[in-house]
Design brief:
This protein is of the alpha+beta class. It contains 12 helices and 15 strands. The protein has a 5-stranded antiparallel β-sheet with strand order 2-1-5-4-3, with helices on both faces. The protein has a 5-stranded mixed β-sheet with strand order 7-9-10-12-11. The longest helix is centred in the middle third of the chain and has 59 residues.
Length: about 575
């Protein structure tokens, strides 16, 4: 017991904790959707709160009305019973006063006659005649008599003592009476005192009155009130539904217009609703949408002009570039000695012409992404084989040992193989350029929702703030660093767009002195809005630090890109 207290948990506390966990597990499938609907719907919350208030108010008013009616009915019926009992008691006492009975036989007959008189002059047949306590014995006193045994059982000591000690002509108490059918109903028992002649003494006269008719009336009124309350609540529900529809209609219109505007329908507007404040909101929103539309049209026009300019310049440069390339080839063919002083300039000229040609190709490709929807020529592709082809093609250009680890992804996936091959080439080429000759590991893995390719190097790495600009165009972490493979500065930007048009994500982790890890994640199918990468972004051989991305992959959201798909047959 001491050990249990030392750890802060008693057996009772553990059982309560298990019970709470079990209740949460059982109620979660039911309460989860309800909680989600409650959190996401202002109309539901408004209707629910209004309904609860209406139910409370109707129940309160119904209870007050029913209590008042019940009190009035019982009071009226009680007053009638007391008047009836007083009349019967007076008649009985008058009969006793007129009697000249003097022996036990005549007094006994008189007692029966008195009971009959009470039954005849009152509305009740429940009579109990009992000699009052506290009197001395008398041989002339008739025996106690009653018409129902339940009266004998319900007479309380307080009522008997009140008759002896009190000065009121009659007293009463509330009782429960059972009729011939065995139904229990409320009632009262009225007690008074009558005096027999010839010294027989005083007797307590009890008359029972059943309020079964009052109880039935109250039950009928209760049913009527319940039915009226239900009808009223139904009417209130319909009324609240209609009013909430009218109240929330402008909000739904605003939400619909904003959703359409966010989806790209720049002509979406909020209609006027005939309300001063909301019409002011509509005017402001519509004015904002008009301004945004005009700005978008201006930007589209400028973008089109820019894209046309880049495309025209690129195409115009191809003619002189081709001429220069042919001239470089002629000069190279005329150089007899590769070690001569003329060979080096000719080689530099040829390399720069090739780089210029690659730059023009990348500029044309990036301009296609800027122009709008991109056409994907998809076909079933094995990413393991595709990655292996890329790695084998780059091995002769690398001083680093490139290791391919195909942990998964052997099944085919619908992608554009040309663009995926370009992504992998860029990532492996980037690892070769910045890997400092250290090993490079290329990992391919898959799960039920996605296929991922990771490229890990142990080169110089980057600072965390530099990773935010890796996919920017023409950005370099170290501008003074020489390009090993002669890149154009657009490779990672194009790779990022290639991943996005597939609905995938290209991400990077890097740390100074510990290398860099790129991760390409492609979802399976077009219908998945979120997916989990099977390859961790933070490598397993490093210690995660604050600010690092998730270690296990985490759920990723599909980026929105305009794309046209054409499957290869």
């Amino acid at each position: 017991m001491a050990a249990t207290k030392r750890h802060g948990r008693s057996p009772l506390g553990l059982r309560l904790r298990r019970l709470r966990v079990w209740l949460l597990r059982v109620t979660k499938p039911v309460l989860g959707p309800v909680r989600a609907a409650w959190a996401s719907s202002l109309r539901l919350r408004t209707m629910t709160i209004t309904g609860l208030i209406a139910i409370f108010m109707v129940a309160l008013m119904g209870a007050l009305v029913l209590d008042r009616i019940s009190t009035d009915l019982y009071s009226s019926r009680r007053d009638q019973a007391l008047q009836d009992s007083a009349r019967a008691t007076l008649a009985a006492q008058g009969q006793l006063d007129e009697s000249d009975a003097a022996d036990i036989s005549s007094l006994t007959t008189l007692a029966g006659s008195v009971r009959s008189t009470v039954q005849g002059t009152s509305a009740s047949q429940l009579i109990y005649l009992r000699r009052q306590a506290g009197q001395g014995p008398s041989i002339l006193a008739p025996d106690d008599s009653f018409t129902s045994q339940q009266l004998v059982d319900v007479v309380s000591t307080d009522l008997s003592e009140a008759l002896i000690e009190g000065r009121a002509p009659q007293y009463w108490q509330a009782v429960r009476l059972v009729d011939d059918g065995g139904v229990v109903s409320p009632g009262i028992l009225v007690a008074s005192t009558v005096v027999f002649p010839a010294g027989a003494g005083s007797y307590d006269l009890y008359i029972g009155y059943s309020f079964a008719d009052v109880s039935k009336s109250i039950e009928f009124i209760t049913r009527a009130l319940i039915i009226m309350a239900l009808l009223l609540l139904l009417l209130l529900a319909v009324l609240v539904w209609a009013i909430s529809g009218l109240v929330f209609r402008p909000i739904r219109a605003a939400a619909s217009a904003s959703h359409r505007l966010a989806a790209g329908e720049i002509d979406a507007r909020i209609p006027m609703q005939g309300d001063t404040h909301f019409d002011e909101l509509s005017n402001n929103f519509n004015h904002m949408a008009d301004t945004l539309q005009s700005r978008i049209e201006e930007l589209d026009q400028l973008s089109s002009m820019q894209q046309r300019f880049v495309s025209d310049v690129s195409h115009e440069l191809r003619t002189p570039l081709t001429t220069i390339k042919l001239a470089a080839e002629v000069l190279r063919s005329q150089v007899a000695d590769p070690e001569s002083s003329q060979a080096r300039p000719v080689q530099v000229l040829s390399d720069q012409v090739d780089r210029f040609e690659a730059l023009l190709a990348d500029l044309l490709e990036i301009s296609r992404y800027d122009a709008g929807p991109v056409t994907l020529e998809t076909e079933p592709t094995n990413l393991v084989l595709l990655t292996e082809e890329v790695v084998e093609g780059l091995r002769p250009l690398s001083e680093s040992l490139i290791e391919l680890r195909p942990l998964g992804g052997f099944g085919v996936i619908e992608v554009d193989p040309r663009r995926i091959r370009r992504i992998v080439s860029n990532l492996v080429g980037n690892a070769i350029e910045h890997g400092e000759g250290r090993p490079i590991v290329v990992t391919v893995d898959s799960n039920a929702s996605a296929v991922a390719i990771g490229v890990r190097d142990w080169g110089v790495g980057m600072k965390s703030e530099d990773t935010l600009h890796v996919f920017d165009r023409f950005w370099r972490a170290d501008p003074s660093r020489k390009r090993t493979l002669g890149g154009t500065g657009l490779g990672l930007a194009i790779a990022f767009e290639d991943a996005a048009v597939h609905g995938g994500l290209l991400e990077v982790w890097s740390r100074l002195g510990e290398g860099t890890n790129f991760r390409l994640t492609l979802p399976r199918g077009d219908e998945s809005a979120a997916f989990m990468s099977p390859v961790p972004l933070v490598p397993d051989d490093v210690v995660p630090e604050d600010g690092d991305p998730d270690v296990t992959g985490g759920w990723l959201r599909r980026p929105r890109r305009r794309v046209r798909r054409e499957k290869e047959r």
